[in-house]
Protein: Transporter
Amino acid sequence: MTPKTPAFSSRLGFILAAAGSAVGVGNIWGFPTQAASNGGGAFLLVYLIMIAVLAYPMLVAELTIGRMRQRNSVEALRALSDKPFWRSFGALSGIVGLIALSLILSFYAIVSGWLLAYMLAAIAEIAGLVALAEWLVAFTVERNLVMMALFMLITVHVIRSGVTDGIERWSRRLMPVLFVLLIAMVIYILTLPGATEGLRMYLQPDFSQITNPDLVISAMGQAFFSLSIGVCSMMTYGAYLSRDENLPRTAGWVAMLDTSVAFLAGLLILPAMFAAQKLGVIIYDDAGVLLSADTLVFSVLPAMFDSMGSAGLWVAFAFFTLMVIAAITSSISMLEAPVNALREELGQSRSRMAWVVGFAISAISAVIIYNFAALFGAVITLTTVYIQPLLALVFGLLLTWILRQQLLLKALQEGAPLMERTLFWKIWPWYVKFICPVLILLVIWRG
Structure:
């Protein structure tokens, strides 16, 4: 007997969970770093355009695939056609997507473990446990293994509880806390000397930079990756969405919340960088290139916190708590997709599959930790630069080229009976069919 597909209990629960899936370390760390490296306000403007012209249409596509069948991503892609070749191809695409997602979580758990370590280090210092704090911030194999395992245990715990009692319940708790912490941190950082300079860089675009090809491609890639497109997470969440919901509108709420977090993160990080510079921390070299771009969160900002004295420990704790919350809301969606697929395809219990998949991903993470120099960057590049955009391209083409158009319209009319008359229906299918593939290929080529 096929296990019953779980579901979110409300629209708000879905929106917070899906936005939480999209809102991750990439928003709070990646987006501001990209903005600081690519012209500040000019990057922000182009990024917002790319969210509208690329990320949002593809988000609707993946949610549509998931809700049509209301099953795991492998079965959802398999069911797009009744022809044996396309059924097999769809299922294979779903399997590759779940493998890629598991690999992404394997390095994401390592990075999230670092964030968890820095959060606990602030607590340790406040408590006077200096030796423990030093161990937590030291880059060692032991520290990385312990913190990765602890983070994965938290993620497995949420997934074992199910969709309503686990994912939705914790998303309802964590997302409001994330917004409150983020806004509070922004308000505090903007009061620091030097913050105004960073704010000006972020909000005043240099229009001469907007046509810079590197900036445009970087903004396109950031918009694409920020919404977790191409690795079955959103497809899985789409399967849990009620058929009474308007898909384009609901996807719009998810994209808006995700973009809001990225925007607020820019209001936090860029002013914080210039506040750090005011305190003597070097953030740009003589050529104007951002230093420590990849380790900004673990170098520049902690240096700023240290310069604040005892108050800096509390600010560091609040900041890294914010980062950990963002990491958890994303990691639970990454683990949920393969767990639910195995649960449905093999007829196993959720709890057992959560432990099996969680252990397997932790084992991969351990291999990466022991071979960090050789594997960490390679896994990131393979999954996010190549596999993820290629799979998003495949998903969009399967939906718009293989699925019959009347079935696509019927899927969108659930929750929106007048869909056929809307401007969205007149534009979106053809846009995903022809324009999005070209844009995605540009991202891949640039990568």
Remarks:
- The chain has 18 helices and no strands.
- The chain has a mean pLDDT of 89.
- The CA atoms of residues 248 and 424 lie 8 Å apart.
